[in-house]
Amino acid sequence: MRHLLEGAERLYPQYLERLAELVSIDSGSLDARGVDAVGDRICAYLSAAGLGVERHRVAHPDGTRLGDAVVGRLTGRGSGPRILLVGHMDTVFERGTAADRPFSVREGRWARGPGVCDDKGGLLAGITALAQLAPDWDGGEVTLYCGPDEEIGSLGSRPLLSALAAEADAALCLECARANGDIVCGRKGVADVEILFRGRAAHAGIDRDLGANAALAAALATVELEALNGRWPDAGLNVGVLRAGERPNVVAGQARLVLDVRAEHNATFDAVLAAVHRIVEGPLVDGVSAAAEVIAPSPPWRTGPGQGWVRDEALLLARELGIALRAASTGGSADANLVAEHGIPVLDGLGPVGGGDHGTDEWLDLHSVVPRVALLVGLIRKVSEALADRGVLAREAG
User: Fold this and answer.
1) N or C end of the chain: smaller count of CB under 10 Å?
2) Domain end (from 247, 277, 298)
3) For the segment 194-214, what is each residue's pLDDT rounded down to a tens digit?
4) Where in the sequence is the domain holding 284, given as residue range(s)?
5) Is 90 in the active site?
6) What element of type H or E holds 335?
7) What angle do CA 395, 129, 357 make, to 5 degrees?
8) 78: pLDDT confidence band, cut at 50, 70 and 90?
9) Can you tell me which residues form the catalytic site (predicted)?
10) Residue from 31, 119, 150, 365 carrying the catalytic annotation
11) 315 and 387 share one domain
12) d(CA 73, CA 125)
């Protein structure tokens, strides 16, 4: 345990210097230039640690070029189970945010800045752990996936992430720990549902009766959709976007609604989406049609039978390191949901402790960096050894 902590402590100054560098780069999901600037530095960090590095072109389904995905590979002197680490380089912030709200450290402990927690602090913890492991690693391959578009549902990078997950025997995901320090052993499924209403525009004063009001249909749909809350104890819906019409003196000919759907169980997730489609297909307003599209669905992730041993290894190792640690499920979705589809054990929240994601008060507790990097290094070793002892692929147990 002392060796793990001393190794992480030795690399901490480098971690802090690199964190300031990454947070100072704007890298919104649709800012390919910014994401690639972060990717350039990630490639340099991985190469300096002795890892093999790959870059993969990524495009949005609509053809828009996104930043490259970066994949680092640590290959040991022996063969053995394959472990996948998962983090992301993009943020939710627009270009200019890093200048408006630059990286800072308060009271020697609280790091601030766009993406400091989600997920640059977590991704950098994975890179630091691999640098600590690299000199004497003798296990199987450890692959680090650095995604360019997680904040928009990994729409472009899903095929690559899926291929890497299909090759892995376990996955350790690098989203930061929850604000109370918990690691994450399950996440709700999440999907955006975009609903387009098409009515018939007309003059509001002269020919109002000739129109078909898409705004009214969207409003009625909003009431019905929000009323679904409470029907399933593990599900929630939120109409977050509602836009209609162009002028007050024109019956709205079109409207757009975007709904956030979350559920803990697969059966509930499917039931909620089915209920949404039934509402949309109903005759809300005469003359108004509606069509719904489910965008970037991420299915629920729950630790399955035979997979909880990874969580248990993390909790045991944390006690040995003197870290008070718990594991919890959370309502937020992440790439862990997509990886878990492949039936391998997954654990998330393995970055340092942080909070305020997506907001102006985002923070990272720098005092948690050394113990959490040490935990990650030890867990990679423990999981590799446990998988080797089992002599079977983890997905067979799950």
Assistant:
1) N
2) 298
3) 999 999 999 999 999 999 999
4) 189-298
5) yes
6) helix 335-340
7) 85
8) low
9) 90, 150
10) 150
11) yes
12) 16
